[in-house]
Amino acid sequence: MTGKKVKFRFAFLTLIFLSLVLIVFLIIKSLEENVIYFKSPSEIKNLSELPKKKIRVGGMVKKSSVEINLDKINFIITDFKNEIKVSYSGPVPNLFTEEKGAVAEGFLKDREFFQATKILAKHDENYMPPEVKEALEK
Asked: How far is the C-alpha of 48 from the C-alpha of 43, rounded, in Å?
């Protein structure tokens, strides 16, 4: 027969193990809800099924494709093989321009149209904030 100490240790180790399993499960579940997948226009064109979740589409903003209306901006993101039309309502970042990298976050309506909820503009490795640039010039 096992003693009182052995039973207590076994119960304690079982409780710790179950707690760890529960913690890992909760972490994975919360991360699963916050994961946003990144796709290029070519990957979207080759998808067998359109995702219902929020995704990010990235590439270069096509030259002469930006159309700004009163409250909406339409443009085309390309990876130089395929392209997708993007529609966005809201303010765009200062770095957002034609022929520069951009990432749009939102939902696919079909393989050729993307409704963005957020626009992220990319900058190259030589980017320097204006405040820092002014300080260096002085």
From this structure: 10
54 and 79 in a single domain? The answer is yes
Q: Is residue 136 included in any domain, yes or no?
A: no
pLDDT per position as a tens digit, 18-62: 999 999 999 988 887 777 788 888 888 888 888 888 898 988 899
Q: How many beta carbons lie within 10 A of that of residue 97, not counting itself?
A: 13
Model confidence, pTM: 0.68
Identity at 37, one-letter amino acid code: Y
Domain that holds residue 17: 1-34
Distance (Å, whole) CA 99 – CA 59: 10
Q: What is the number of domains present in the chain?
A: 2
